[in-house]
Amino acid sequence: MIAIFGAGAIGCWVGGRLAAGGAAVTLIGRARVMDELAGGLTITELDGPARTVKVTATTDPQAAATAAITLVTVKSAQTAEAGATLARVLPEHATVVSLQNGVRNVEVLRAALPGRRVLAGMVPWNVVRKDRGAYHRGTTGTLMIEAAPEGEPLLAAARAAGLPIEARRDMPAVQWTKLVMNLNNAINALAGIPLAQQLAQRDYRRVLAAAQREALTLCARAGQPIARLAPIPSGWVPRVLELPDRLFTVIARRLLAIDPHARSSMWDDLEAGRPTEIDYLQGEVVSLATRQSSAAPVNSALLQLIRAAEAGGRRDFTGAELRARCLGG
Question: What is the pTM of this model?
Fold first, then answer.
């Protein structure tokens, strides 16, 4: 059995997809989400059929005690709490996989779960809740997990489900690369429009390119490797983002498929009145700059705008407005 602890949008979609492939899946989450699954879990994706599956859904963490592997999908700010809860129910030598944004969660879980094997993972997809018990994957990509024998139950279940997955030996580099990509989450949330529509506009992309350059420069100074997860090297992406709209559109179609209705998880958090993960995305870049006695002005500006949005501030910036606020001019 595979347990998914903290099942929200990502956890429900991944769990549903694994269950559709024949895995026994138990989702553990908040009552509001779990109650919606009584009639089944429906998963859809941009390049596949809709599936409705039956899964075990509960609010009781004890359900993870007998799992072959437990996937943690809580928001980054809840990782320490999740670790403390799982420490009370997971047996010695249990296997846990962090399928979360950010670069610190694995170490937090390892500190909270001595005696257990905690593996890093990376989810590349944008997933949104479409309706009660219905979740949609709006982008393409390959799930990644730290290479280790203990990860085999997840690898086997994903392969049986036809779900792209890869075991990696460079997960810190993978996670930092995902963080650099996720710097767009804040821009999309501040634009207030679907991802495809936002990325089609050069001014928004210029802000993203500048934010990514800051992060990549700081990583290089810190000696932090960046993985290549796309057909082009990560260092080339800012240059592609700055291309004129028509040329960018042609190239982007070859790199990533995006559902026209997909939005970032940060937009979804703001829409629901939840705290965002900005401290674990732009905040991580700003912290890295501080440790180098340097600055990250673009990411700092985005961080402050998201904090203002969390307090009820604007979430409808045009590309030109956001460029002026973040880049000046």
Answer: 0.93
Task: Write out the chain's pLDDT in tens, 329 residues.
Answer: 999 999 999 999 999 999 999 999 999 999 999 999 988 999 999 877 889 999 999 999 999 999 999 999 999 999 999 999 999 999 999 999 999 999 999 999 999 999 999 999 999 999 988 889 999 998 889 999 999 999 999 999 999 999 999 999 999 999 999 999 999 999 999 999 999 999 999 999 999 999 999 999 999 999 999 998 888 888 899 999 999 999 999 888 777 778 888 899 999 999 999 999 999 999 999 999 999 999 999 999 999 999 999 999 999 999 999 999 999 86
Residue-range domain boundaries for the chain = 2-169, 174-327
Q: Is 244 helix (H, G, I), strand (E, B) or coil?
A: coil
Out of 3.40.50.720, 3.30.565.10, 2.30.42.10, 1.10.1040.10, the CATH code matching 174-327 is 1.10.1040.10
- State the CATH architecture for 2-169: 3-Layer(aba) Sandwich (3.40)
